[in-house]
Structure formats: structure tokens, C-alpha cells
Design brief:
By secondary structure, the chain is mainly β. The chain has a domain at 50-154: lipopolysaccharide transport protein A fold, CATH 2.60.450. It contains no helices and 9 strands. The chain has a 9-stranded antiparallel sheet, with no helix packed on it.
């Protein structure tokens, strides 16, 4: 199994790949660690700066890409993210972008492919934008739930008739 590349701000760093295979998806998370006497569970008490990690579907095409100013590893299933930037893709050969999602903070539940946040969220699609607070995203289902202060704007330029 091959893990995709994760990028940092052009610095040479030591890193360790954790790969999870679940429901046809390959998720790679990269964490800084000091490797001593082999890996027996790294304790990561400092955030990863300026990270980006990719998720691929079972056909090998990009499904989503997440980046942030900081990512703090809490445990094998929990990562806290500051200045979260998520891009979702159709999962096709062209790498067609579905949406761009921005939030100042997010909590990623790795094993469930779920992310949530209490602060504001902004979702930008080709013909729409959505804003709100207190949100949840299920990456496997490709669904968002926004519970407070929801504002939706459609920007479709063509009129569709049936």
C-alpha cells in the first residue's frame, strides 16, 4: 500500500506515515516525530505547521484534500486543525473540484472520516456558497450539516427550465 505525499512549507523534516484503509478509501496523515528505538507510538505534543494531506478513492483518484496552519495530533482518531482548508473532488480522472471549505478551527475524526467545528464555516461551490456555524461533515457520505446562522446563496448564471 502506497501513501500519498504530504507537503510542508518547503522545509526538510522527519515524518512518519500513518495509513488507514477503510471503506475503499486510503487516508494518509503525516505527523512529525522523533523516531527512537523504532516506532512504538509517537507522542506528538507540538502541532504540525502548514500541512496538507490527500485522500484517494478506491480507483486512486483524489477524493479530498485537507490543509491547515496547524494540526495537533490528539490520538489515533483525533486531530485538531487551525485555519482548516478542505477541498472536495468528484473523484474522477480530471480531478474536478466540487467545493472549497474554510473554517478557523476543526476537529477531524480520522477513522470515521468525519470533521466538525463550532465556529464559522464557508463552503464555496461552482454555483453556490454556504455560510454558518456549528457544523459537521461526513467525508464518506459527502454531506454537510450546519446548525446555526445558515446563509445560502446560489450564483447560477443560466436559467434552467424543465
Amino acid at each position: 500500500m502506497t501513501c500519498p505525499t504530504t507537503y510542508f512549507e518547503g522545509k526538510s523534516v522527519k515524518w512518519l506515515f500513518f495509513c488507514f484503509r477503510r471503506k475503499g478509501f486510503l487516508l494518509s496523515l503525516v505527523f512529525l516525530s522523533t523516531l527512537t528505538n523504532g516506532y512504538s507510538g509517537a507522542k506528538l505534543d507540538k502541532p504540525i505547521k502548514n500541512f496538507k494531506t490527500l485522500m484517494f478513492n478506491d480507483k486512486g483518484y483524489r477524493s479530498w484534500e485537507i490543509s491547515g496552519r496547524e494540526g495537533l495530533y490528539i490520538n489515533d482518531n483525533l486531530v485538531e486543525i487551525k485555519d482548516m482548508h478542505l477541498q472536495t473532488f468528484h473523484g474522477d480522472q480530471q480531478g474536478t473540484l466540487e467545493s472549497t471549505v474554510l473554517s478557523p478551527t476543526a476537529t477531524l475524526f480520522v477513522k470515521e472520516h468525519v470533521m466538525q467545528g463550532e465556529k464559522e464555516i464557508k463552503i464555496l461551490g461552482q454555483d453556490y456558497s454556504v455560510e454558518g456555524e456549528d457544523w459537521k461533515w461526513n467525508g464518506s457520505q459527502k454531506k454537510f450539516w450546519i446548525n446555526k446562522s445558515v446563509k445560502v446563496e446560489f450564483t447560477q448564471k443560466e436559467i434552467v427550465t424543465f
